[in-house]
Amino acid sequence: xxxxxxxxxxxxxxxxxxxxxxxxxxxxxxxxxxxxxxxxxxxxxxxxxxxxxxxxxxxxxxxxxxxxxxxxxxxxxxxxxxxxxxxxxxxxxxxxxxxxxxxxxxxxxxxx
Amino acid sequence: xxxxxxxxxxxxxxxxxxxxxxxxxxxxxxxxxxxxxxxxxxxxxxxxxxxxxxxxxxxxxxxxxxxxxxxxxxxxxxxxxxxxxxxxxxxxxxxxxxxxxxxxxxxxxxxxxxxxxxxxxxxxxxxxxxxxxxxxxxxxxxxxxxxxxxxxxxxxxxxxxxxxxxxxxxxxxxxxxxxxxxxxxxxxxxxxxx
Lengths: 112, 194
Prior knowledge:
The structure holds two protein chains of two kinds.
Chain A: H1 4-20, H2 24-46, H3 52-69, H4 78-87, H5 94-98, H6 100-107
Chain B: H1 13-41, H2 44-62, H3 70-95, H4 126-140, H5 144-155, H6 160-167, H7 171-193
Helix pairs in contact in B: 1-2, 1-3, 2-3, 3-6, 5-6, 5-7, 6-7
């Protein structure tokens, strides 16, 4: 009487033998199928992922927006920044900041 | 046979290694996959189409998965593709059932349980032919799940967990389908011997 184990062994041996005897046409088609899959793999590896381009664009826009709109970006001129800071100081040296010509014009007697 | 396909010289090492791994994997599974699909579809060209589609689908959708997952995923795809082809043929068979010339009427409602071609095919040796034809016939008469469980476990050497992933069912179901397949095959063989 044939047991389950014998069925398994017999089926395995028969199937294994059958794949050793595949005809040339089938083997050739399998080789072509494999090459097509490997070509596809290489194509996909070379192609950037679909989300990369919009993601890079979005990131660049975000960085640009931060640079343009951030509060510290308004103090562009170091000279202005220095002047405003100096004026806010109680013991500011006005001669240095405004120059002698300004004082001369202010204190000049309009009547001569 | 090693990976020597395409212009691999300008590829990074990691990519070349992955391609070589896929090449080895496909070489290892392609003949068994064809045999399994051939048993279900009873047609060489349909089986070859199913194997090629499954290879392409694996690299398109699962190339980044760990290598240990490739085999269950590949056989899951192959099973789905095989079932799609069976359904398509079944529908086609019903559509053409009334056609008097009857070229497509042999498909029946369930191609998996349909009788195999009476011709063993020129590729089989005389010694192997008879046993193989008988086994084809008996495995072809199993249900789709029994076929899968028997072939994946006994022919492709997947363990129960891998077979369960490939079949999309629980490990308990795999064991049940496998056991029923073996019992049914034994009964058919005993009938043939007596």
